[in-house]
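[stage:ingest] chain + small molecule (FE2/S2 (inorganic) cluster)
[stage:ingest] validated
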Amino acid sequence: MTDFLLCKQDEIQDGKGRAFEAGARTVAVFRVKDKFYAFANKCLHRGASMCDGAIADGGATIRCPWHNWTFHLESGRNVVDPSAALRTFRVRAEGDQLILSV
Ligand code: FES
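[stage:predict] done
[stage:export] tokens:
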């Protein structure tokens, strides 16, 4: 497992996401209040960038910007077909910095 220093916590706005390169991967990191979630940036349907998606269901899910496939933020599982899941990653705060483990 490799850690990547992403940015300061306050560089991701509440309810918004950003994409980060982490080795060979692109990872979407979203903030919902003081919680951060990280998952593969590529939608399982047609490959849209999930970092451009919208938080939905009161902060529980992320909706793809292209065709609205929706995934649980915690598990990455699709809300309609849980067998389809975005790979999730651990993201944590150290001081005011965010660290991603992939
Ligand atoms: S590309 Fe994400 S729902 Fe189609």
